[in-house]
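Long-time lurker, first post. I've been practising inverse folding by hand and with some scripts of my own, and I keep getting stuck on stretches where the structure tokens seem ambiguous. Below is the full token string for one chain I'm working on. Before anyone asks, I'm not after the true native sequence, just a reasonable design that respects the backbone. If someone could post their per-position residues I'd love to compare against what I wrote down in my notebook.
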């Protein structure tokens, strides 16, 4: 009899625990419904949206942690996420050529779609005529625009405004809240820009040699730096042996002591250049995406750019 009573009590406890969990889950879902749901493609857009929307938004990034974005293709699950969101933010047609077809195929008239490059002055990859042989692998890309717009902090302020306008449209009751957050964040971007201008003003060399794809054209242009990348706009654009020979000769001629490598891809090209020139290697992170560890540690776009500045100061041998 006692065993039966104990058994009944345990069953009741399990049922009550299940009901409690269900209530918590329902409340969580209801709470999330109160938030503006935002889906972004790249990490900078994800981070900007979080900063502007704060606790009034639920932001997700399509890219799985650690995935290089240039070859990314959305899954049916990704398309469903976009379709069910309040706001979808992508970088532009040159970064996400797949976005247009998905957007036109989504049957959600309330979905607000933001092309983050709206009002941004897009540039084409620069070509140094002294290194025309090295740059031959870029020639088929001359008609393309450089999609790495977030690597100019003035562009970031435009992107922040684009996101803010979307949030105000989706949730006009909190317009003042979003605009205040946006202005605060743009002030942080101004401070970052000032730091770059100050600390990159007096350097031993003004040439960035990047053993990765052409990602830092905007940054180099903004801070009056020369920029040589081993690859084209896509990480799949492999350099030829001739390209590398010309680049090695230039590194030795200019007595460049540091080669930069990129995040989330193999550093083998940078390693080759470093080995051939006895140069050291430093990370230069374009911030397309972050690792799971970075995501768990709440790594921010600004913290990534601050680390980049430190590495640029070392690599370009700048006076502090």
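-- Answer (accepted) --
I ran through it position by position. Result:
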């Amino acid at each position: 009899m006692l065993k039966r009573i104990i058994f009944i009590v345990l069953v009741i406890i399990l049922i009550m625990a299940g009901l409690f969990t269900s209530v918590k889950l329902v409340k969580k879902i209801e709470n999330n419904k109160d938030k503006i749901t935002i889906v972004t493609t790249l990490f900078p857009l994800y981070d900007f949206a979080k900063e502007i929307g704060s606790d009034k938004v639920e932001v997700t990034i399509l890219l799985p942690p650690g995935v290089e974005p240039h070859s990314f293709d959305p899954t049916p699950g990704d398309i469903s996420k976009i379709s069910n969101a309040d706001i979808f933010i992508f970088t532009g047609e040159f970064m996400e050529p797949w976005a247009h077809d998905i957007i036109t195929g989504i049957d959600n008239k309330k979905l607000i779609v933001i092309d983050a490059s709206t009002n941004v002055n897009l540039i084409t990859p620069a070509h140094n005529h002294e290194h025309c042989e090295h740059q031959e692998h870029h020639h088929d890309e001359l008609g393309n625009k450089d999609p790495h717009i977030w690597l100019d902090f003035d562009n970031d302020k435009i992107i922040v405004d684009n996101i803010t306008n979307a949030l105000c449209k989706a949730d006009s009751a909190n317009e003042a809240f979003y605009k205040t957050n946006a202005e605060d964040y743009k002030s942080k971007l101004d401070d970052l820009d000032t730091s770059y201008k100050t600390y990159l003003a007096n350097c031993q060399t003004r040439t960035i040699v990047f053993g990765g794809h052409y990602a830092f054209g905007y940054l180099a242009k903004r801070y009056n730096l020369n920029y040589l990348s081993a690859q084209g706009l896509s990480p799949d654009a492999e350099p030829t042996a001739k390209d590398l020979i010309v680049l090695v000769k230039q590194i030795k001629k200019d007595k460049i002591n540091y080669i930069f490598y990129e995040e989330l891809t193999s550093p083998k090209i940078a390693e080759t250049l470093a080995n051939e020139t006895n140069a050291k290697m430093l990370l230069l992170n374009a911030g397309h995406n972050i690792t799971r560890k970075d995501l768990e540690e709440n790594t921010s776009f600004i913290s990534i750019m601050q680390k980049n500045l430190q590495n640029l100061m070392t690599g370009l041998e700048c006076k502090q």
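A couple of notes from the structure itself: Strands lie at 36-40, 57-61, 87-90, 112-115, 207-210, 226-229, 258-261, 280-283. The chain has a mean pLDDT of 87. Happy to go over any region you disagree with.
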